[in-house]
Design goal:
Helix content: 40-55%
Number of helices: 7
Largest sheet: 3 strands, mixed
CATH topology of one domain: Arc Repressor Mutant, subunit A
Structural class: mainly alpha
CATH class of one domain: Mainly Alpha
CATH architecture of one domain: Orthogonal Bundle
CATH superfamily of one domain: Winged helix-like DNA-binding domain superfamily/Winged helix DNA-binding domain
Distance between the termini: 22 Å
Number of strands: 6
Length: 208
């Protein structure tokens, strides 16, 4: 299963391997963005068979990522929803060539690929799809600043608190006019930047 810390799903190795399949990551992404769905609905959206989505939903349920939405459906169909907790993936202790690291890299790569695909679609087709008003209140921006380790930790925690407060306020709302909105907050050091007061000597590390 998974271990919990501050209401997060912190992946242990069995659960990480249970998630490490492109279709399972895609299913989690769709349920996160659009809410509960049936295996057939997921299959149609993802271009897969309902048999495939049903199988992978059962695997995700086994590891605690999804659950049946018993408020919907009938005896003929089951609705599935993502378990509403953040998923935390920490690969810092994994060997660079281990099977566990390979599983971690696959999950991270699929998350990133799906994020980039959605952002590219918004930039290319947002105006004609959602209209001027939604474009005007959207934001795609990059900021650069020199930070110490402690300062970056403070920034990360403050940004997470702002996002969490909005998730708690609006999660599962049924307000007319609401539509799926995806939030990206990226905070990371530039790897080839020079540390203030130091140098760039030493070996490089690739850690997630």
């Amino acid at each position: 299963m998974v271990s919990k810390k501050k209401d997060e799903i912190v992946l242990e190795m069995a659960a990480l391997k249970g998630l490490a399949h492109p279709l399972r990551v895609a299913i989690i992404d769709v349920l996160s963005a659009y809410g509960a769905a049936t295996a057939s609905t997921l299959a149609e959206r993802l271009g897969e068979s309902s048999g495939a989505t049903s199988y992978h939903l059962r695997q995700l349920e086994k590891h605690g990522f999804v659950r049946e939405d018993t408020t919907r459906g009938s005896g003929r169909e089951r609705w599935w929803e993502r378990v509403p907790r953040p998923i935390s993936l920490n690969a810092t202790e994994l060997g660079p060539t281990s099977a566990d690291r390979e599983a971690s890299d696959l999950v991270m790569a699929e998350w990133q690929r799906n994020r980039q695909k959605r952002l590219a679609a918004f930039l290319a087709h947002g105006l004609e799809t959602v209209g001027k008003e939604w474009i005007e209140v959207s934001g795609v921006s990059t900021a650069n600043v020199q930070l110490t380790l402690e300062q970056m930790n403070d920034l990360t925690e403050e940004l997470a608190a702002v996002v969490d407060s909005h998730l708690a306020k609006y999660r599962n709302q049924k307000t007319p006019g609401a539509r799926p909105v995806q939030i990206h907050v990226d905070v990371f050091p530039i790897i080839d930047g020079v540390e203030q007061g130091g140098d760039v000597s030493g070996s490089a590390k690739d850690e997630q």
